[in-house]
Amino acid sequence: MGNKLITIARIKGAHGVKGEARLQSFTAEREACFTYGPFLNEAGAPFLTPVKWRPVKDGFVVTLKENLSREEVDSLRGTNLYAPREALPAPDEDEFYITDLLGLTALDQSGQLAGKIAAVQNFGAGDLLEIDGPKGRFFVAFTREAVPAVDIAARTVTIVPPDLSEDG
What we know:
The protein is mainly beta and 168 residues long. The protein folds into 2 domains: 5-87, Elongation Factor Tu (Ef-tu), domain 3 (Beta Barrel), CATH 2.40.30.60; 98-158, PRC-barrel domain (SH3 type barrels, Roll), CATH 2.30.30. Helices cover 6% and strands 43% of the residues. The chain is built from 2 helices and 13 strands, in the order ββββββαβαββββββ. The strands form 3 sheets. Strands 11-10-9-8-13-12 form a 6-stranded mixed sheet, with no helix packed on it. The protein has a 5-stranded antiparallel sheet with strand order 5-6-2-1-7. A two-stranded antiparallel ribbon has the order 3-4. The longest helix is centred in the middle third of the chain and has 6 residues, at 70-75. The chain is elongated and about 55 Å long.
């Protein structure tokens, strides 16, 4: 996949009556999501063009060039917005794009299969790897203690899995 897309923002719904959108940014520096040109859709095609924006508590209120109605913006609630991978800076050491972690094989410290990373979640207390394992899905905190090794090239992570026993 040479032209991989990275999710940089999500539409949270409409704001006001003039078709402005509420937007949640996923970039490390919140305003950086506006620096990659028009937002792309999941197919990589230009989708929405921010003209101006202002920060609010949980994201941004954005005026779009496309001049959508409030109802049209609201119908896009939950839509992810993308930028081309090559437009984003390379992650620092010990930093990863979520898309690079998805699908990696999770191994326990003895090298036994624990599952595959299905998602990366953050419910407010830090990132969690959601792992689809043989006994069901479980979460592991994405910390150095719980995930001591990430090998993107080998497509594996080493985890310290939680105790999933019935009596534990």
